[in-house]
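Why predict the complex rather than its parts? Because the way molecules touch one another can change local conformation, and only a joint prediction can capture that. The input here totals 690 residues.
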Amino acid sequence: MTKMMILGAAAALAVAATSAHAQQLAPSPTLDAIKARGHLECGVHLGLPGFSFANDKGEWTGLDVDYCKALAAAVLGDATKVKFTPTSVQQRWPILQSGQVDLLSRNSTITFSRNATLGLNFQGINFYEGQTFIVRKSTNAKTAADLDGASVCVAAGSTEEKNAADWFRERNLKVTITNFQKNDDAIAAYDAGRCDAYTAGVGALAGQRAKLKVPDEHIILTQPISNDPQGPVTRYGDERWQLIVRWVLNGTIAAEALGVTSANVDEMKANSKNSEVRRLLGVEGGFGAMMGLPDDWMYKAIKQVGNYGESYERSVGMGSPLKLERGQNQLWTKGGLLFTPPFQ
Amino acid sequence: MSAATFPLWRQRLFGTPATAALTVVLALGIAWVAVPLIRWALIDATWSGTTRNDCTGSGACWVFIRARFGQFMYGLYPVDERWRADLTGAIFALSGLGLYLSPKATRIRLAILALIILPPLGVWLLAGGFGLRPIETREWGGLMLTLFISVYSSLIAIPLGILLALGRQSQLKVVRLISVLFIEFWRGVPIIAVIFLASLLLPLILPSGTGIDRLARAVIGLGLVIAAYMAEAVRGGLQALPSGQREAATALGLTYWKATGLIVLPQALRISLPAMTNEFIALIKNTTLVLVVSILDLLGIAQASLADPNWVGMNMEAYAFAGAIYWLICYALSRWSKRLERRKLG
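Output of the joint prediction:
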């Protein structure tokens, strides 16, 4: 009887051990396919200033593109082993659903209904998009609430018009909405001084500002009035692949929070006493192996592409012609919303 | 202008008060449009430089087009392999010219030979493999891609269209029915829907990994639609031909295919040439619809290049340049078809 119980317990332990092992390295058809073909397939936007565009040399560049490069570095050890498929707004979901790309990194807003009905999962937020306003610096407006008594140029019938009108009405602010037929007309009227403000999403405004006569005279209000977070998207299923996509994004943000940059990553890897840095860079913890990746997965990504802040600055931030302030896309410790769970 | 022609010229423009008034109004109208356009495009334009900071003129900034010229022509095709696209274009153009100038007796045989050799040769040169560096179709783009799609879809459309037109007139009921069904189906579906179906639905239906190339799907889709239109253009020519022509050919003992190839088609095609040219010009402009599935043809690459923050606000330049190229191609085609029409029957 005792013998039987011991045998039973041993068998149960053995089963538990194998299932634990199986959970650690569940099969990942996506990862296997990427390794077999030798490159990552990433769906990006056809052309969105700062986020995804082909530069003069024909290289894909931008914040969304950088994320794919970091993922390629983490998975294959080489940030150049990624191929981009530009996608239009109509084809972005089908192209992911049909398996033509491994993921989308394409300024797509995360919403409940998309998550619940498209068979797609959003793996985190790499850009907090939201509707905001551009004003002349001379108006001294800091937030949308300071626009009391001002006039705003908008395209008639647009979502932006409705959002702005609702927002001001709810707060009893007297703001004149001036309608134009098209966005281009509205921004031209704003540039000509017919209105005090123009409204659009943060990312779009950054591109628009660069087109104004004197971009430096204008400021984009950092506090948006709507909430349209965007991030990389994967198909349902293949949890290990989803895990990798999610944690590479987390890793680039964590690297910024921990002060790891492409310039100091070697030194940090060799000398850092911070155990979270050491786990992130694969010195201890064996985190890469838990996902079936080399332990230096994030080291490669940071070394070759840089942390989130570096990508941001050179794509849409101060190192780019768009000169977009960090705003909500700043670390939570510095007044923004960027946050990553700990590498523990 | 010589003194002799001057009165005629004056009489035509200012002959009566009414024509004089019309001349003045039209001249003002043209000046009203042309003067600012010329100022923008030529006089106030910036021609030299390398970055957007060099765009100091109040007019167009052609520096942008210069910096992006390679992309407008070849898309993202690797720079050191672009000679392959040039070579392909040259081979096609020279073959066309050679056919045009070749003696009539051998032309048909040469044309068939060219049709067998050139299309695979072009695909090999552009796509690579068998000794050439492989270049995926996603890197193709710009004018090269516009021409590729136009030429290859018409390679599907013209032969298929002729067969369908003949099929529609056939004595065999089944052949007639199939032709009519095919033509009416593809003519009734919007091109944009066909491109969507080919690009989005096919990969969902086919098991992943077996998918045909994205560009090939678009080319085939376009080719099938245009074939239906071509068929109707050719049918117009066939119906315009007096039935005595075929009857006489048959009476001489020619078989159906001989009569068709030697007597009916040469005449019918000449009659349908204007309509076919029309379809072909429409096809070239319809290639821009592939933009909805993110294939970067000339218009697509123009649009995509506007997203480079280093060149923001170059919309006018990009679209003006792309528009001018489309116009040039279509105009050249229409002149060429005029020449063909005027050539003696033979």
